[in-house]
Amino acid sequence: MRLVTFPGQGTPISIPMLKSVIRNKGKEFQTVLDNCGEKSNDLLQFILKNPSSPGSIAACSNLYYQLYKTTETRPKKSVLLGHSLGELVCLSANNLFSLKDLFDIANYRNELMVQYTENYLHAHRISRSSLFEMWALSSPRARNLPEEVTQLLSALPIGTVSIANANSIKQCVVTGLVEDLESLRTELHLKIPLLRITELTNPFNIPFHNSTVLRPLQERLYDYIWQILKRNNTHTLTELDYPIIANLDGRISFLVRHALERFVKCSSNTVQFTMCYDTINNDLAKDLDEAVCIGPGNVIYNLIRRNCPHLKTYEYSSLTTIEKFHDAHVNDNEKSSFKKQVDDGNEIENKI
User: Fold this and answer.
1) Strand order across the beta sheet in which 196-200 lies
2) What does the entry list under GO cellular component (predicted)?
């Protein structure tokens, strides 16, 4: 069985890498676009011009996945895992809605987070010029860094700081108002040996996965997605084509409603990626033998490679990594046929 992963909203799209894939996999990529509907070419143009848009990142990841499925010569039973926004891509990979729907949901989710952040600032009479920051914390000496940070936060009167992502036992991301985070800096260094703090970009000023600020978005996000499912006549589906390991608690969702509920809840709760590793390394240890980490980017590839060492892990985010994955999964005759198809990208390249 194969684990298939998708990245989150913080993963940048490398436009040169994407264009290289389009240019060299032109025939396959055009097939993907044709299968995604009449507006997919326009959507691709938007992605190329707006690579930091949440909708662009989600749609780009879906396009990489569809390319992977189109060129997959030896299909294997799969289980899916997405990081934050990537969990929405998992739902799209189950054919619950279109590429354009995925794009719209991702952007609507981001709009809700911006709106409820502004509502929180207004309700607490905090200046709108106040900034929420994100810090990546890491320590090679930590036994369980997310738990250590949680204990520290519970002992201090700091209202807006919370853990957004528990990415591993040695790395997590915290969010909070900049003044609250700065007041925590000294305590963090005193309590956690060899701590490294990396300040991340946060262009939308969102305290990601902060339940205090973002909890109210859940109902509106769920309703928005549900209306899209009804429009696509997929709201009556019960079972997922591909089970999804949930960020919320690491449990495996086999039913559509469970997967949808867990994604929506985790949009305002901590991404518990360490729990997902536990599921992979314990509950699925006898079933999973490899992972393919869909792009853009290689952040999730590195996390899976380090935290699930029993899996043979492949990156799928550039021409080089795509061909490496393909070469590892085809026989000699298939390889020869595949390499003859690298010059079919002229038509789509002209559109770029």
Assistant:
1) 196-200, 132-138, 171-177, 162-168, 271-272
2) mitochondrion
On the question of pLDDT at 336 being above 90, the answer is: no
pTM equals 0.93
Give the tokens for residue 265: 């809840």
Confirm whether 124 is a catalytic residue.
no
Are the C-beta atoms of residues 135 and 92 closer than 8 Å to each other?
no
Is 138 part of a structural domain of the chain?
yes
In a domain, 120, yes or no: no
The answer for residues whose C-beta is within 8 angstroms of residue 134's C-beta and 6 or more apart is 164, 173, 174, 175, 199, 200, 201, 202, 208
SS3 228: helix
Higher pLDDT, 344 or 27: 27
Q: Are residues 163 and 63 in the same domain?
A: no
Residue 121 lies in a domain: no
On whether both 243 and 304 belong to a single domain, the answer is: yes
Is residue 306 a part of any domain in this protein?
Answer: yes
Residues 32-39 have a mean pLDDT of 90
- For 52, the domain range is 2-108+233-351
**DSSP-assigned letter for residue 144:** S
Annotated catalytic residue 78: no
Catalytic residue (one of 209, 253, 268, 317)? 209
8-16: average pLDDT? 95
DSSP secondary structure string, 304-329?
HHHH-TTSEEEEESSHHHHHHHHHTT
Q: pLDDT for 54-89, tens place per residue?
A: 999 999 999 999 999 998 877 889 999 999 999 999
Query: Per the residue annotation, which of 14, 56, 84, 162 is the catalytic one?
Result: 84
